[in-house]
Amino acid sequence: MKPVSHSRSRSESARASGAPRLAPPLLALSLAIMLAACSKPAPVAEAPREVVVLQAQQRNGAQGLHLPAEVQSRFVTAMSFRIAGQLVERRVHLGDAVRKGQVVARLDPADAEHNAASARAELASARQHLDAAEKQLKRDTEQARDNLISAQQLEQSQDAQAAALAQLKAAQARAAVAGNQRDYTSLVAEHDGVISAEQANTGDVLSAGQPVFSLAWSGAVDVVTDVADNQVARIRPGTQASVTLPALPGRTFSGRVREVSPAADPQSRTYRVKVTLEQPDAALRLGMTGEVAIAPAAQGQQEAQVMVLPATALFHKGDKPAVWVVRADGQLELRPVTVSAYGERSIALSQGVAADDKVVVQGVHTLTAGEKVKAIAPLHAEDFAL
């Protein structure tokens, strides 16, 4: 038998197993691809987040206040009947002008007229009793002078006359009250003005003193506004003010602060301020809205400087106000501040921010302390105008 070589046996085994035979260059390429697939890609550095920033504007702390306001009558009184009864007639309605002495409503007068008639009858009876008692006293006095009657009988006549006189005075008082109650069935305007509210309808049974209308007096008007507790200390009675109204464009009305409420409203926690106009105008209508600019109250020393920022920059650190400041290294810092005044679109800070600080004014609720950011200016600067 002819012997078989080992090399041939290996090749035949390879062909039998079906394994492909790779050339050395292809084998090196395959190994390189496998190594590249197993290696991790190099990390890509994330770009810093862009944030909109502004620098605070430095202003004098004695800047005036600009507040929304409304024109109201200085005096508004509730119109009500002095007696109880059923409302049978209303002669005016909301917005009607009334004159002093004008009848605006009536109650059913039947019961009041019966009481007045009864009081008049009692008064007439009391007069008759007094007349009879005076005549009897006159006769007894003449008879006592002639010693025809005893002194005791004369005293009885005097007592009867005094009692009749007292009864007459009481009857007169009751008749006067009954007459007034009859007159009180008509509700009369005590001042010129405008009906500003209606609180009762025809047919309602009213108690004494229950409001039927509200009457805004004609004449003096006030411009009324509300201020926060950190602003009320800057306002004093007599402070100058100016009022502008969109309903009367191009006109400015001068006035002075007449009254500052000593206590805050229990619901809104604000203080009511009333401004009296120096020259009221007939064009002013109750309920008109506008803006009142109140000058700063005079101080003994100059007010400290404050930094003004858009209100959108305000955040919080715990229960204290704070703002986000971009440091020189590009990281965010949450810095506590002291707010001296709140405006309609701005805040005034007395501490915490310098003039060269870059303060974030947009998206403050999405930031994290220490975050790396890129400061950019606002695209539309007018959106952050102070």
TrEMBL record:
InterPro entries: Beta-barrel_RND_2, MdtA-like_C, RND_pump_MFP. Pfam families: Beta-barrel_RND_2, RND-MFP_C. Residues 223-296 form the CusB-like beta-barrel domain. Residues 116-174 form a coiled coil. One of its GO terms (cellular component) is efflux pump complex. Keywords: Coiled coil. The keyword Lipoprotein does not apply. GO terms for molecular function: efflux transmembrane transporter activity. Residues 305-364 form the Multidrug resistance protein MdtA-like C-terminal permuted SH3 domain. Belongs to the membrane fusion protein (MFP) (TC 8.A.1) family. This is Macrolide export protein MacA. It comes from Herbaspirillum frisingense.
